[in-house]
Amino acid sequence: MATVKNALSTRTFSVLATVGNNGNCKRKPPHVLTVAGSDSGAGAGIQADLKACGSLGVYCSSVVTAVTAQNTVGVQGVHPLPEHFVAAQLRSVLSDMEVDVVKTGMLPSIGILRVLCESLKEFPVQALVVDPVMVSTSGDVLAGTSTLDGFRDELLPMADIVTPNLKEAAALLGGLRLETVADMHHAARCIYNLGPKNVLVKGGDLPDTSDAIDIFFDGKQCHEFRVPRIKTRNTHGTGCTLASCIAAELAKGSSMLLAVQEAKRFVEGALLYSRDMVIGSGPQGPFDQLYKFKDQAFTSYRGEHFDPNSLFLYAVTDWRMNKKWGRGIVDAVKAAIDGGATIIQLREKEAKTGDFLGAAEACKKICQSNHVPLLINDRVDIALACDADGVHVGQSDMPVSKVRKLLGPNKIIGVSCKTLEQAERAWVDGADYIGCGGVFPTSTKENNITIGLDGLKALCSASKLPVVAIGGIKKGNAGSVMELGVPNLKGIAVVSALFDQQCVLTETRCLHSLLMDISASTMA
Ligand SMILES: Nc1ncnc2c1ncn2[C@@H]1O[C@H](COP(=O)(O)OP(=O)(O)OP(=O)(O)O)[C@@H](O)[C@H]1O
Ligand SMILES: Cc1ncc(CO)c(N)n1
Ligand SMILES: [Mg+2]
After folding, report:
1. Would you tell me how many other CB atoms lie within 10 Å of the CB of residue 135?
2. Is 29-282's fold the same as 302-523's?
3. Residue 289: closest CA among 241, 350, 255
4. What are the structural domain ranges in the chain?
5. What is the Cα 113 distance to its own chain's centre?
6. Which helix (H) or strand (E) element contains residue 110?
7. If 159 and its partner were Cys, which of 147, 196, 239, 269 is the partner (CB 3.0–4.6 Å)?
8. Burial label, 448 (beta-carbon count in 10 A; 0-12, 13-18, 19+)
9. Considering the entire predicted model, what is its pTM?
10. pLDDT one-digit tens code per residue, 90-148
11. Which numbered ligand comes closest to the C-alpha of 165?
12. Could you name the CATH architecture of 302-523?
């Protein structure tokens, strides 16, 4: 069950709008309509789209434009559906089902392309993702050359993003040669001039590159996406999957750039998971878009940005304490890391913005070179400005769902919780971990309610997220916390035990070795 929970990304639930209906509360899930061809081998086309959207927690309806007979060897046949029946399917779905985003794949004829354009004018949607499918990787033609003009003159001007591969980009530009990354940049700009709001030129098929490189152009800036090319024969359907994931993320409310980033991560994770899979005997096999349901390890694949074990010894800075002992934030952070701190949070309630940012930037360098994540307390602006690894917020700071929108899917978000309701909310809103306390009385925070070891244990047991304990923890009582033995209690967070001390390095070392001893004895 845990795998299923994970695959239904925490983010998913935060975007389920509730709509009143005869006094009842109903959920409206984000909804993508794919208008594409069926792939009998199920690696690409409608089948890929349904799996990809489903994996990202998005409802996917489907209008079939053609039925193909294909497998890992190639395309054995294409049977386009009659235009009037594509029109009928479009009307059925769009007139009734509150589609957020339309994603197009194989449009086998200019007639079908025009039917789609007419439907979109009659039933406008929030966003249109156009994957201008023309030729399969096996070289088989999936859309006649007559559709080229239709794409250029009618569909692309309506598109929020178009995602051609190299051959399709070349065809859209009248047979331009595309052989280098510089050519891809140029092509992205030229295709933008055909009218779409954004362009992603995909370089999966660029020869002689160790990276898979895609170029994104939003009319102002070009972004280069590079991931190490995964060595596998199973890449059939990467294009369809990528476009569907972009559509799904847009339907959930993401910005275009973040949607593309998330889609890339999904494809990369799926290829990695499926790299050794053997289906069929032809040259290009399908991969598994449902990978997140099958192997929990892949839900925490590196794209998932956060290792809960980094909560082990969590150092939270305090300007006043460090000043009292005559040292700056940066020196304090360096000493804590040298002593074994596994994550750093800068909590500088009184610092001026300019000073805070300067210190944060210096800490970021130290943290990065030591592979220790750096979080900023409360100040999302500072975190963005110094490119910190994430933010920690309290219950009266900016809500987690808003922080997630600002920081995107790849940053860490922690939130302080005392109650089971707050812990549940944190999970729903897309937090990565919970800070739970005060466990013991503390002077760092005024008027802080102490929940005690029992409160901590109850909250950990109920929480679906990893937990770090905080509040008055020091050498003398750290053992009683870690010995609670709840699996998602990953570590302790400390302020005065490290920073209200003469030597930060010594205190951190001491606490670190104590924690190591405790975890060795609890594992034994
Ligand atoms: N071996 C790989 N490793 C990592 N990423 C890849 C690999 N192959 C393709 N990609 C990525 O997959 C996405 C689709 O790229 P590609 O250029 O293959 O599209 P396509 O040709 O339209 O796909 P399709 O196989 O569905 O026709 C791109 O983001 C690309 O960078
Ligand atoms: C049906 C269908 N759509 C798209 C592609 C492109 O991969 C394919 N091979 N088949
Ligand atoms: Mg390809």
Report:
1. 15
2. no
3. 241
4. 29-282, 302-523
5. 32
6. helix 110-122
7. 196
8. middle
9. 0.62
10. 999 999 999 999 999 999 999 999 999 999 999 999 999 999 999 877 777 788 788 99
11. 1
12. Alpha-Beta Barrel (3.20)
Does 317 contact ligand 1 (Cβ within 6 A)? no
Q: Is the ipTM of this complex over 0.90?
A: yes
Residues with CB under 6 Å of ligand 2 are 36-37, 39, 44-45, 68, 105-106, 133, 136, 142, 237, 239-240
Tally: H helices and E strands in the chain: 22, 19
State the distance from the centre of ligand 3 to the C-alpha of 170, rounded, in angstroms.
14
CATH node for 29-282? 3.40.1190.20
Does residue 213 contact residue 181 with C-beta atoms inside 8 Å? yes
From the list 464, 425, 462, the residue with the least C-alpha distance to 13 is 425
Phi, psi of 400 (to 5 degrees): -55, -40
Give distance in angstroms: CA of 163 to centre of ligand 2.
14
Nearest to 348, CA basis, from 335, 337, 326, 332:
332
Question: Sign of the C-alpha dihedral, residues 27, 32, 37, 39?
Answer: negative
Distance, C-alpha 245 to centroid of its chain? 11
Instruction: Report how far apart, in Å, the C-alpha atoms of 428 and of each of 110, 253, 344, 414, 433 are.
Output: 44, 15, 25, 13, 12
CA–CA dist 255, 408 (Å, integer) = 9
> What is the rounded CA–CA span in Å between residue 287 and residue 232?
10
Residue pLDDT, tens place only, 353-371: 999 999 999 999 999 988 8
Helix (H, G, I), strand (E, B) or coil at 443: coil
User: Is the CB of 459 inside a 6 Å radius of any atom of ligand 1?
Assistant: no
Tell me which residue has tokens 């917020």: 393
Three-state SS for 514? helix
